[in-house]
């Protein structure tokens, strides 16, 4: 059984390593003090967009946040249990090769339960991203244009354009996506959908 990632402890470790109080981090991130406290105590699971705002204030990329401090030796094959879940507790985004040194792209196995949403706040970050829907449906909004994609359909766009992902269906949507640069937060240089 895979051990759950301790979001609260990791955030607290990064905040303290930068000499920031909860109040100062909250101010920089544009969130309330209680939000930082609740996340650090693991009393709430932040949405991907909320976590991105907090990490951008540090600054730390989402993939670096979940990868931890120890890069691994490059390997060619990854089993299901070796993928790092960088989702928010509702959305499951499993990153391939999260700890690989000098990774130049992000490949993510995404699962959106019915009604799941990357957040009302549109996402924007450097790079490009694309993916193929494996099963279910996903509604993607890119720069005001809305498309509903089903199994076998694909997308590819400039990630600097405002975008959002939402599952409007009644079954889970599964996507395999890639983005470059390897970002899952624009903080240092990365971010995927949120």
Automatic annotation (TrEMBL):
CDD domains reported in the protein's UniProt record: cupin_XRE_C, HTH_XRE
Keyword flag DNA-binding: yes
Checking Pfam families in the record gives: Cupin_2, HTH_3
Q: Which PROSITE patterns match?
A: HTH_CROC1 (PS50943)
Residue ranges annotated for the HTH cro/C1-type domain, each copy included:
11-65
Note the InterPro entries from the entry. Cro/C1-type_HTH, Cupin_2, Lambda_DNA-bd_dom_sf, RmlC-like_jellyroll, RmlC_Cupin_sf, TransReg_Diox_bact_type
Give the residue range of the signal peptide. none
Q: Does the keyword Ligase apply?
A: no
Keywords from UniProt, A to Z, are: DNA-binding
Name assigned to this protein: Cupin domain-containing protein
Q: Which organism is it from?
A: Halomonas gemina
């Amino acid at each position: 059984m895979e051990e759950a990632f301790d979001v609260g402890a990791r955030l607290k470790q990064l905040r303290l390593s930068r000499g920031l109080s909860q109040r100062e981090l909250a101010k920089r991130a544009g969130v309330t003090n209680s939000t930082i406290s609740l996340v650090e105590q693991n009393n709430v699971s932040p949405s991907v967009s909320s976590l991105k705002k907090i990490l951008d204030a540090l600054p730390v990329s989402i993939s670096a946040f979940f990868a931890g401090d120890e890069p691994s030796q490059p390997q060619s094959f990854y089993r299901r249990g070796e993928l790092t879940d960088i989702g928010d507790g509702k959305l499951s985004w499993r990153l391939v090769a999260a700890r690989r040194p000098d990774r130049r792209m992000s490949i993510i196995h995404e699962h959106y339960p019915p009604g799941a949403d990357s957040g009302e706040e549109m996402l924007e970050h450097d790079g490009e991203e694309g993916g193929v829907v494996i099963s279910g449906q996903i509604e993607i909004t890119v720069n005001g244009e809305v498309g509903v994609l089903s199994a076998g359909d694909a997308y590819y766009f400039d990630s600097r354009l405002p975008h959002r992902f939402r599952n409007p269906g009644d079954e889970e949507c599964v996507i395999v996506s890639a983005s470059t640069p390897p970002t899952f937060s624009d903080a240092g240089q990365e971010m995927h959908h949120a």
